[in-house]
Amino acid sequence: MKKIRDFSQIIGLLENGQLNPALSAEVADTLEKLHDLSEASNGAAVKGSTTLKIDFSVKDGMVTIATDFTSKTPKRPRKNSVFWVIEDGALSTEHPRQHDMFPRPVSSEEPSRQSQ
N or C of the chain: less Cβ packing under 10 Å? Predict the structure, then answer.
């Protein structure tokens, strides 16, 4: 009778040998996301995790093993946008108390008449 006592052997046998490569791919994907987030944050440390859950059910000397795994990574930071609130609650991209440094002349004539 073959005895299995080593956990790495158990992992290798679960799900007909498919759990280990799937979990390895999940870990690689998590690390890639964390690397990209760190690069986007000028090398700041970012944290994530991959959790493996193993459920055991024993009946009449037979064990059934069910597995699941999940990964968590921080949300990718979004950029902020700045606007000014003006008198009627509308938004403006121009500061309401600053004057334009380069005012343009306003003409009521059509452009084709100005050049004549």
Answer: N
Alpha carbon 64 to its chain's center? 35
Pairwise CA distance, residues 7 & 29, whole Å: 23
Contact 38, 44 (CB under 8 A): yes
- Do 63 and 57 contact (CB within 8 A), yes or no? yes
3-state secondary structure of 51: strand
Question: Which DSSP state fits 17?
Answer: G
What pLDDT, on a 0 to 100 scale, did the predictor assign at position 86? Answer: 87
23 has a pLDDT exceeding 80: yes
Half-sphere exposure of 61 (CA within 13 A, CB side): 0
Q: What is the pTM of this model?
A: 0.64
Return mean pLDDT, the chain. Answer: 88
* Residue ranges of E strands in 60-98: 62-72, 84-85, 91-92
Residue 115 has pLDDT above 80, yes or no: no
